[in-house]
Amino acid sequence: MFDKILLPTDGSDVALGAAERAVALAKLAGAELHVVFVLEPYPYTGIGSTNSAGVQAYLADSQRQAVEAFARIRAAADVPAVTLSTETVEGSSPAEQIVETARRCGADLIVMGSHGRTGVARVVLGSVAGKVLMLSPVPVMIVK
After folding, report:
1. Which residues sit opposite 81 in a β-bridge?
2. Which stretches within 12-144 are classed as H helix?
3. Label partner for 95 (CA 20 to 30 A): which of 74, 112, 126, 127?
């Protein structure tokens, strides 16, 4: 059925809900679970003079969020039958980074959470899940 499942996470409760589904599916299929956290670049680069302390603080906080997200998923995936690996990638488009990671690691399914924004919030903020659905060469399971 599936050999490798990619699970993008942003550390949210919605992502943890998707992780629980992905873990159950990985156990059922005997698949490896590969978890990815996308670090977005420092948002204020190119605006005035860049404060290196601000950049360092931003990167440290992003790394801390990734470590915490991976720890939550490891706790949820504490099942001997599930092999779990983690990866942090950098990029300004999380959807593109997720799809590229799926291609690179050989995932045959992406399981991810969606915050379910609608209306103006979706137009302004966009939908990473929606973009992954459009770009992905493999099936995508969206968990709300």
Report:
1. none
2. 13-29, 52-76, 94-105, 119-125, 128-135
3. 74
The average pLDDT across 119-138 equals: 76
Closest CA to 111 of 29, 41, 42, 18: 18
Q: Is the pLDDT of residue 125 over 70?
A: no
What pLDDT digit, counting tens, does each position of 88-108 carry? 999 999 999 999 999 999 999
Q: Which residues contact 40 (CB under 8 A, 6 or more apart)?
A: 62, 90, 91, 92, 94
Q: What's this model's pTM, rounded to 2 decimal places?
A: 0.87
Least confident stretch, 2-6, 77-81, 87-91, 108-112 = 77-81
- On whether the 4-143 domain is CATH 3.40.50.1970, my answer is no
Report yes or no: 30 and 86 within 8 Å, Cβ to Cβ: no
**Angle 110-78-27 from CA coordinates, rounded to 5°:** 50
- 7 near 31, Cβ under 8 Å? no
Per the structure block, which two tokens stand in for 130? 């929606």
> How many degrees, rounded to 5, is the angle at CA 85 between CA 55 and CA 106?
100
The SS3 of residue 112 is strand
